[in-house]
Amino acid sequence: MSVDTRNLFRTFCFIITLLLGLAAAQTTNNPGTKQQTTRDPSQLDFGSLPQVEYVTTTDYSAGGLDGYYKLMSGFLSLVSPRDVKYEWIELAMQGRAQEIYKEPTKVVLYSLGWAICAAIGILFIVIMPIVGLCFCCCRCCGNCGGKMQQTVRDSMVCKRRVFEVFLFVVTILIAVGMVFAFLCNDALSTSVTQANTTISGTFQNVRKYFNNTKTQLDYIVDQYDTMSGAVNYDLDNIDQTLGVAVRERLRPEVGTAVNQLVDMINTVEPTKMALLEVQRALGQLQTGAQDLNSALADQRTTLNNTLNFCDPTDSVCVNLRNEVNQLSPGGDFSALTDVNTELDAVNTLLSSYDIPAIADMANSAFEGIPNRVQNYSTDVVADVKKLLADNKDVFANLSASLDGQVKVIANNTEVYQDVATQYLMKFVVPNNMYRWYAGLGLCCLVLLVVVFNLLGLIFGLCSYNSDHTPTTRTCGSTTGGNLLMSSVGFAFLFCWLLMLLVTIFFLVGSPMERFVCRPLETQEIFAETIDKPYFLKTPLSSNNNDTQSGTPAPSPKYLLGQLLLQDDQIPLKAGDILRNCSDNKGLLAVLQLDRYSFGGTDTSDLLDQINNINIDDQLDTLDVDFSTVKVLDQDTRDSMTDFRDSGVSNIDFDAYLAEVNKGLTQVDLPTYAQGLRTAADNFQEGSNVINGVRNNADRIDQLQTTKVVPLLDDVDKLKTNIQQLKRTVSDLQTSIDALLASAQNAETYLQTQGGDAVKDEAKTYANQLLGYAQQYADWIMVRFNEDFGGCKPVSDAYQSVVLLLCSYFLDAFNGFWFGLGWCLLFYVPSMIFGVKLAKHYRRMDYETGYDDYDYRYENVPMSNMDRKQPSAPPAWHRAVLHKAPSE
């Protein structure tokens, strides 16, 4: 089973861009027209995209070898301190590698470090076997420390101690290198295990990524229901969402007149009640005032009769006579006309017309505009809902078309994973065991030197006795010396082989670390190569020629833009992709899919397809007929005309108020009575008038209580209702005439301009509905830029490969040969100190100063004499090596 990944990529990107087109369509639906939205649509909650937890494949631990790897890396940096010559890579990829060698000096200087190290290794490989062979022959000839004779000196102890210390230190250093080499050899096996984990985790993440991206896309498409649900809800309540807006739009011209008309109609009943109260209060006042006037007249007569008995020359008496006429009525209520005629007219009006129904009709004619809008928008609402449903089907079908591709990807990743896993398990893992054994064997070769050195030191130190002469040293001490010489022998025997492997591994691992791993870890290799504009300098295909001129096509500006998006003008860079993916950004930000062209179907073409969601065009067809709306019907007009002609406005309210304001009496009776009592107190002692005046004061107080006080409430009611009527019906005729004209104008405006008001508000309402779509589009844009198709697995896969190749494998590989090289570095001092120290441990055949003979070969070994064996033939070697001295 196989899959066309290019077609899959195009299909996936097409769906993404189609959704992006929806987002853009809401803001560019009417190009050149700036849409104003007067409402703030409710904020929709689309939730968060479903996320998946990926398998972590980027965890790395050096297992305590961090410091050692840094030391090794520092050595490689010392060998090759110069930056990578990316221009050479560029020339090589352009087929111009021969130009690199036109500047041999630069090439030599750049590779000088590797050349020096390789030369040292080769010299070591060549020289050490020769030196070992010569050293062996020299020892066999009794030279180079091979003579079993040692001169006893006082400095022997000090020299032996120094040799022991130096050999021990060198041996420990060799052991350290051997341990690191062993650990790195084991780490190489770990890299094989990690390779299986990385491959499994990476392929698993790929499957999870595509499945989750498909799930996210389904979620985004499903959120179309959230947006369309908000639109449908507003459409179902169009009487409130649009109708109320139309009514409020008409209120300044129509609503005000209607409200004034309703207010005027609503004054009829209160006017009737006020007239009734005026009529009742006026009747009571006229009757009560008549009684009060008679009582006041009688009281004046009585008071005058009383004052006739006082001394005419008494000033108090004179003053009282002058104030008697103040006991007179205030207002003349009998002169006020009644309101029976006006009251009859209002009663006739109320009995002829259903005033509350007229008020309700006048109000409902205007307030019922939302229901009228809803009734006339039934077809438009149905069309918009159908449009939304059709577009949902388009997106759902596009999303469903990706299911098969995702399944193919999942199946193929499983196949690829099985192939990679089988390769690892059948070839890499079994062969890794032999590699591990080989590495272990190399470490054991070093271990031989370490073990022989340590055993030689142990035997030598433990068995050495300073009281013994060189010829009487113990067997243990001699064994220690022999072990040290064995160490030297093994070192000479295998050092060239180890150096050969170290040199080969160095020439492989060091350039890989410098040219591959470091650039991959820092990602500078992308910035200096494929991310550079016009990196190739040549077209991708030699057959890609201009069809008209036949000349080769120009090289792509951005290589990845051409390879992935078939557009080399899109600045798609590998470094940017990895950085954005490390932040788990979405595909839009990473691949710049908004600039992608799908084989002739670019974003503008997609927008044309998406623009069929023209809610404003649908609502623009909404037409509400206001021709049958009557704000002022004939009954209402007749009722207002009759109310105007009822005569209520002809009442002389000022005359009423003038008489009412005069009060019931000209003087305040309690005050007048108190004045009489005060005057009585001022009469001469024994006057006959005093008691009479006081009696009159008491009768005046009685008048206040019995005649005046009962009428005060009627006076207040009369005044209040007269003032109310004056406010209500003053200029009634003019007001009603103006009101009727205003109502007629409002009705005319509603019938002629109401349709335009509906059109304008429908546009605003369409913007409100598009506001929901805009929220959906903005949410899509945010999701695409932030977390839709978050490509963290791409970055993780890259990091996993780099970790596997560089951290797990190459660091361990370089650490292995670096450890062996470390050991070889101390092989030479180990051999030197081993040979020197062996001289002090081994039993000598001769001891200078005790076993000396006259001339060199004049000796008979004591062992031969003890065994009664003859000595060597006389002078068997003198002819060759030595001539006996003359006596």
Structure, described:
The protein is mainly alpha-helical. The protein has a domain at 251-377 and 629-771. Helix content is 72%, strand content 1%. A two-stranded parallel ribbon has the order 1-2. The two termini are 104 Å apart. Mean pLDDT is 74; it is low at 1-40, 542-550, 597-611, 850-855 and 864-887.
Q: Features of this protein?
A:
1% strand; disordered C terminus; 2 strands; disordered N terminus; two-stranded parallel ribbon; membrane; Prominin; 72% helix; transmembrane
What's this entry about, in short?
By secondary structure, the protein is mainly alpha-helical. Helix content is 72%, strand content 1%.
Topology summary:
Elements lengths: L4 H23 L38 H14 L6 H8 L10 H7 L1 H29 L8 E3 L4 H81 L1 H28 L2 H40 L7 H9 L16 H13 L2 H13 L1 H8 L1 H86 L11 H48 L1 H5 L30 H7 L8 H9 L4 H5 L11 H8 L4 H6 L13 H11 L8 H10 L6 H14 L6 H41 L2 H55 L5 H34 L1 H15 L4 E3 L13 H5 L11 H4 L6
Parallel strand pairs: 1-2
Kindly report the average pLDDT value. Answer: 74
Number of DSSP-assigned strands: 2
Largest sheet, described in full? Answer: 2 strands, parallel
Oligomeric state of shown chains:
single chain
Strand share of the residues? under 5%
Pfam families: Prominin
InterPro entries: Prominin
Subcellular location: Cell projection, Microvillus membrane
Coiled coil: 715-742
